[in-house]
Every structure is written in structure tokens, then in C-alpha cells.
């Protein structure tokens, strides 16, 4: 069986275990981790670095930063990016001294062809609620999104075949929206609340994934 077929079988086994309901109280969230990955090539070899930035939910102060760098063995296959990223994510998580209550990924969760973007897929290995925060829109079944109103906090649901997969969220006025989806063990409304909580005036992105994104750029420069 080819890799793609094996990947599909694994994802389809996880799909019934996805829960789009909170398994926590928002008041109990203490630490939130932002996760991002950057790639580069050297000759025929591909490499990647995963950076995780842990932030206190109340103070919004950085508590911890870790990274893990390594060679990538899984080829890029559209729709199965999680398998390429997960080995780096799991190794980076092992380096954490703190214990995040929730993880936010620079990427999609439920807003995915099989509802199994990196945020959702990774949740089964992290055993924590997750949120997908994407900078660009992943079109599924030729479904476009409706642009939210030009005001902070405005959003529109992204529906595929009548089912809500995520939301286009306006985090800053006069700035293009970002795309939020549940990862696992969280509902979409709470995902939006948490995302907006971490958005500051200098970016449309929440500081969780923004700081992780910035860290991957620095790490890529260092290693490549």
C-alpha cells in the first residue's frame, strides 16, 4: 500500500473521534502554545524546523520557546501535510518544560478536505484542545467564503455541503481576514474568542502563531 493510501486510512480512523465541543472551561486556560513549521531544501534533501512559543493567557507574556530541527522523510502530498509536519511537532513538544492547556497551529484544522488538517490531526498526539489559524484560504469542493464585514470581530461561517467547517474572521479593520477552524475538543465560537484575545494592533494574526511564525524564519536562517 502506498504512503498516500496509508495516510488516508489513518485519517479516516481518526475522523469519528473529532469533537467540536469544548472539553474545558475557558476560565481554566492558563498557557497557550503557538506552533509553526518552516521548510527548506539542501540539494536533494528537505529539512524543517518546528517552533513552539508558549504564552500566558492572561498576561500574554512569553513563558517558553522551543524548536526542533531535522530532515524531512515524508514527501509532500496535498491533503496529507500533517504527516510531514507531525514528526517535527512531536519532537519539539518533548522539549517543553511547561504544559500548555491548548495549542494553536499556523494552519488548518477541521477546514480540510477530510476534516483532518494539522491542528486536528496533531490533537490526537498532544491530547489537548487545538485551533487552526490559517493566513490563506483552503478552498474545498470549489466552495468560496463570504467576506466578513470590515470591523474587528466580524466573521462569516465557511460551509461545505451545508456543514460549518470554519470561519473567515476579521481581526483588524481594513485588513484581510484570517481563517479559523476547530482542531479538536473545542467549538468554533470559543476558537474565535481565543484567537481575538491574542490579536494585537501590529498584526492580523494572534501573537501565538505570529511569534511561532517569526521564530521559524529566524531558525531557518540559522540552520539553512
From TrEMBL:
Function statement: DNA repair enzyme involved in the repair of deaminated bases. Selectively cleaves double-stranded DNA at the second phosphodiester bond 3' to a deoxyinosine leaving behind the intact lesion on the nicked DNA.
InterPro entries: Endonuclease-V
EC numbers, comma separated: 3.1.21.7
Protein name per its UniProtKB record: Endonuclease V
Family: Belongs to the endonuclease V family.
Pfam families xref list: Endonuclease_5
Provenance organism: Psychrobacillus lasiicapitis
The protein's required cofactors: Mg(2+)
Residue numbers binding Mg(2+): 36, 106
Gene Ontology terms describing biological process: DNA repair
A GO molecular-function annotation: RNA endonuclease activity producing 5'-phosphomonoesters, hydrolytic mechanism
Compartments reported by the entry: Cytoplasm
Source organism phylogeny: Bacteria, Bacillati, Bacillota, Bacilli, Bacillales
Amino acid at each position: 500500500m502506498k504512503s498516500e493510501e496509508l495516510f488516508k486510512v489513518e485519517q479516516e480512523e481518526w475522523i469519528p473521534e473529532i469533537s467540536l465541543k469544548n472539553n474545558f472551561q475557558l476560565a481554566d486556560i492558563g498557557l497557550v502554545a503557538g506552533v509553526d513549521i518552516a521548510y527548506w531544501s539542501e540539494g536533494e534533501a528537505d529539512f524543517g524546523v518546528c517552533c513552539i512559543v508558549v504564552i500566558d493567557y492572561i498576561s500574554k507574556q512569553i513563558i517558553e520557546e522551543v524548536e526542533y530541527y531535522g530532515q524531512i522523510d515524508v514527501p509532500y502530498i496535498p491533503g496529507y501535510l500533517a504527516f510531514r509536519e507531525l514528526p517535527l511537532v512531536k519532537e519539539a513538544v518533548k522539549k517543553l518544560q511547561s504544559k500548555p492547556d491548548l495549542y494553536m497551529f499556523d494552519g488548518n484544522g477541521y477546514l480540510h478536505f477530510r476534516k483532518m488538517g494539522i491542528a486536528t490531526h496533531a490533537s490526537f498526539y498532544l491530547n489537548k484542545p487545538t485551533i487552526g489559524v490559517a493566513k490563506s484560504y483552503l478552498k474545498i469542493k470549489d466552495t468560496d467564503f463570504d467576506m466578513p464585514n470590515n470591523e474587528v470581530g466580524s466573521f462569516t461561517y465557511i460551509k461545505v455541503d451545508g456543514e460549518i467547517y470554519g470561519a473567515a474572521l476579521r481581526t483588524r479593520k481594513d485588513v484581510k481576514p484570517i481563517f479559523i477552524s476547530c482542531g479538536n475538543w473545542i467549538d468554533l465560537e470559543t476558537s474565535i474568542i481565543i484567537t481575538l484575545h491574542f490579536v494585537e494592533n501590529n498584526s492580523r494574526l494572534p501573537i501565538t502563531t505570529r511569534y511561532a511564525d517569526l521564530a521559524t524564519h529566524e531558525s531557518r536562517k540559522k540552520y539553512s
